[in-house]
Amino acid sequence: MTGADVKPLLPVKVPVPSDIEIAQSVEPVHISKIADAVGLLPTEYDLYGIHKAKVKLNVRERLAGKPDGKYVVVAGITPTPLGEGKSTTTIGLCQALGAYLKKKVLTCVRQPSQGPTFGIKGGAAGGGYSQVRRRGAHRVGNFGDVDRLNALSDLNGNICRVAASHTQSVRLLFLVLVNTRTQGKRKFAAVMLRRLAKLGITKTDPQELTPEERRDFARLDIDPASITWRRVMDTNDRFLRAITVGKGGEERGQTRDTGFDITVSSEIMAVLALATDLSDMRERLGRMVIGNDTQGRPVTADDLGVGGALTVLMRDAIEPTLCRWGGGRGGCGARGAGGGAGVCAGVGGVESGVGVGVRACGCEYEAQAEGGGEGGVRREGRALQSVTCSRIGTKGATHVPPPAFTSFHLAAHLTHPIMNVTPTPPPTQPPRSGASAAVICAHHGLGGAGAVDLAEAVVAATAGPKPDFKFLYDVNISIKEKIETIAREMYHAAGVEYLPEAEAQIEKYTRMGFDKLPICMAKTQYSFSHDAAKKGAPSGFILPIRDVRASVGAGFLFPLVGSMMTMPGLPTRPCFYDIDIDPATGKIVGLS
Fold first, then answer.
1. Residue 170's closest CA among 223, 208, 226, 221?
2. What pLDDT does residue 419 have?
3. Dist. CA 506–CA 504, nearest whole Å
4. Which residues make Cβ contacts (< 8 Å) with residue 510, sequence separation at least 6?
5. Where would I find the beta strands (DSSP E) of 412-460?
6. At a CB cut-off of 8 Å and minimum separation 6, what does 11 contact?
7. pLDDT digits (tens, 9 = 90+) for 30-58
8. Which of 276, 236, 283, 279 is nearest to 260 (CA)?
9. CA 275, CA 168: separation in Å to the nearest integer?
10. Crossing angle, helix 267-274 and helix 145-157, to 10 degrees?
């Protein structure tokens, strides 16, 4: 079978209608039929209405003896202003694998942030004839998981014991924390036992603690200037990047500077994406560091006593959300991005970042696909690189690339990431540049029919023996060595410059024992460099590191490169101008 011989299973229009028009043109089937089609038992999911469901994690126990499937990761080249097509390519590839090649396939995509939904670009629901059904519900957060993250961040941000630790006596503080609500007897809450263990105290009866032990347990001595925890919200707001809190009359002089991040950049989102089960998520949430005490020791969510409550709020969020894409029967699971979402299927297509997610969850993925201007499939170790076209150049696409994105730039954007993971010098002739196959796709305009060639290339590339997979660096080297290895080997930078704040944080995290964590670089997605204006594949530049932050619970450090922001701002002409509701039908209009 070749792509030229394949006809779409559903009618398609040329030019391609708007995404929301396509999404609303097909009445979705009840989600229980999708669950049945992918092999879920009725006891293994909970319905959230008739169009989506939550999949229980215990399904893995029933499938434990089944053969492992293929794990295909869809990443992206440096994007154009129209996006790079990761979600569209993920869904189009899986449509082709399932509906046309008859493979058992599940698609795992991110739940979108309302920042890009109402801001400037797409929101991880795919596009054209390769998109998530019930697009409106998916795009505006009707699954509720992101709202849970907002609540968690705010709960952990209410560091109520900062003021109390500095103003109340040890005796009163201890009596308030270890109260007599349980049958009139003082008893440690379960989370308190974690703090006692951290302090090396093995006693479980509050009455047995010495005055010194009571003091160590009750008084956290948090240094307000060290608090790194930031509250989050899921819409863009540049005015919340830097704020001052603690100015109320009852805060007793606990004024400090802080700020908001967008929800999907939070450590809690990373924990959600990387956690393997409820127990693992509980441990990761409890390990999250919010700052340090006056002696420089890290203070965690469990020290605050909030680790268990955070996990309760996230209990349902860790369960993948089952929905449906069009162009054939199939399931689509949505969770937070990060590369750690699990796939229980014959073939799994996952849209995510690659690196920390693979390292943290220990997965051995079979293929990596990239949305771009042209395409290829390549294998290195257990990683394979697949490159396909996105909306630019897709048959029936309604957008034309801006003049800045010439074929030269697109080719450079495409070949650079392939060369980064090529174990031997790449061929000098295009279009493969080290990939094992090159294909042109038209899934945006044709659905799965437009990605059959890609699907066959992925199947071929994942067949055969698996060479040894090698990480880019050893986590035991220093923080700077890891950053510089990434800058040199992946971005082709000539060197790294550390600003004073970054130098201070690197020294601090090394002293606190966090220097063995892997690195997740936070930088502009519009260039391999720190400068979004540098197109193609720049080299020889100096990469500036402005700051380094720690996501200890999630399990990585993330340097902020150049002017990278963790709270975006809205453009002059946001997408929300086009979004409205049709009162007669209740349907969403204008959603990209």
1. 221
2. 65
3. 6
4. 478, 479
5. none
6. none
7. 999 989 988 899 999 999 888 889 999 99
8. 236
9. 37
10. 130
pLDDT at 539: 92
Which two three-digit tokens encode residue 167?
Answer: 């103003």
**Euclidean distance between CA atoms 108 and 90, whole angstroms:** 8
Rounded CA gap, 312 and 409, in Å?
A: 48
Q: Mark the ranges of the chain whose per-residue pLDDT is less than 70.
A: 1-4, 77-84, 120-124, 133-144, 152, 154, 156-167, 181-183, 325-435, 467-468, 592
- Per-residue pLDDT tens for 291-341? 999 999 999 999 999 999 999 988 888 888 887 754 443 344 444 434 334
Give phi and psi for 518, each to the nearest 5.
Answer: -70, 170
CA distances from 503 to 387, 549, 555 (A): 37, 11, 20
Type and span of the H or E element at 194: helix 190-198
Non-local CB neighbours of 477 within 8 Å, separated by 6+ positions: 485
Amino acid at 370: E
Alpha helices in 438-478 (DSSP H): 443-446, 452-462
Question: Which residues make beta-bridge pairs with 581?
Answer: 588
How do 70-76 and 53-55 pair as beta strands? unpaired
Non-local CB neighbours of 439 within 8 Å, separated by 6+ positions? 3, 375, 376, 377, 388, 453, 454, 457
Please give the pLDDT value at position 412. Answer: 62
Strands (E), 77-129: 105-110, 126-127
User: Is 565:556 a contact under the CB 8 Å cutoff?
Assistant: no
The predicted pLDDT at position 585 comes to: 86
- Determine the pLDDT at residue 460: 87
Q: Which residue spans within 532-592 are E strands per DSSP?
A: 542-551, 556-561, 580-581, 588-589
Distance, CA of 345 to CA of 50 (rounded, Å): 23
Instruction: Output the pLDDT for position 365.
Output: 39
Residue with tokens 């293994």: 44
Nearest CA to 217 among 165, 288, 163? 165
